[in-house]
Write a structure and sequence with these properties.
0% strand, elongated, single chain
Length: 234
């Protein structure tokens, strides 16, 4: 009996330590879950506020400020969340397009947005919309460099049939056509062909704006509008 009692007394402190450890772990998990829920709530609030801004392309300064506060709060909780980062970048791009936002202020917003998109891509490198967003920012900054080419190529590789990705690639590619290399030009040309299959009106509008009859005329698109335009320009 003495030996058994001694063994029980020896286990007592160990059980207490294990119990304390379990409580600490449980509290940590609960705290993490609450933090994540709080971040998700702020992100949802940011999306709700910003949705009409994105739809209209504009809005009140207070709405922009509120949406920015909410998404930044979410990022303070989880700074590597790619959804939060991508959203924050898109909001800055929209802010940069508002009337009166020019010069240094506009550039700083776009450069900050580019940082968000790069961070999002570090976490989620196969997301085509982040590549398209990064391409868009470089386009607006006039930064036709290695990153521009990489974003263009990766956007095509990761989202070849995504409508918005196609239009961004075509628009940016044609705007800076003279500065593109052979590979990039070939990819842009192929995206024009692909886009004409699923969104001919939108793709043709971009091609027409840049007067690039060589990219569509001669193709069997089945689009009367394109055929008529080609007849007039050739």
């Amino acid at each position: 009996m003495g030996v058994v009692a001694s063994e029980h007394r020896g286990r007592g402190p160990l059980l207490q330590v294990a119990a304390v450890g379990l409580v600490v772990v449980s509290l940590f998990i609960l705290g993490w879950a609450l933090l994540r829920a709080n971040a998700a709530w702020h992100f949802y609030a940011a999306q709700t506020i910003a949705e009409p801004l994105f739809e209209a392309g504009s809005g009140s300064p207070s709405a922009f400020a509120d949406a920015e506060f909410r998404v930044n709060t979410a990022l303070n909780r989880f700074h590597n969340n790619p959804d939060y980062l991508d959203f924050a970048g898109r909001l800055k791009v929209l802010s940069a397009s508002q009337p009166g936002v020019v010069g240094r202020e506009r550039r700083e917003l776009l450069e900050s947005a580019a940082v968000n998109f790069r961070q999002a891509l570090n976490v989620r490198p196969l997301w085509p919309y982040s590549w398209a967003n990064l391409l868009s920012v470089n386009d607006q900054l006039g930064a036709v460099d290695e990153e521009f080419n990489t974003a263009l190529i990766r956007a095509i590789e990761t989202g070849p049939w995504e409508p918005r990705v196609q239009l961004q690639v075509i628009g940016s590619g044609l705007r800076y056509w003279d500065e593109l290399g052979v590979k990039e030009r070939r990819l842009v040309r192929s995206k024009v062909v692909d886009a004409l299959k699923i969104q001919p009106r939108e793709a043709f509008a971009i091609v027409k704006d840049y007067g690039r009859a060589d990219l569509v005329c001669g193709l069997e698109t089945g689009q009367v509008q394109i055929d008529r335009w080609c007849e007039n320009v050739q």
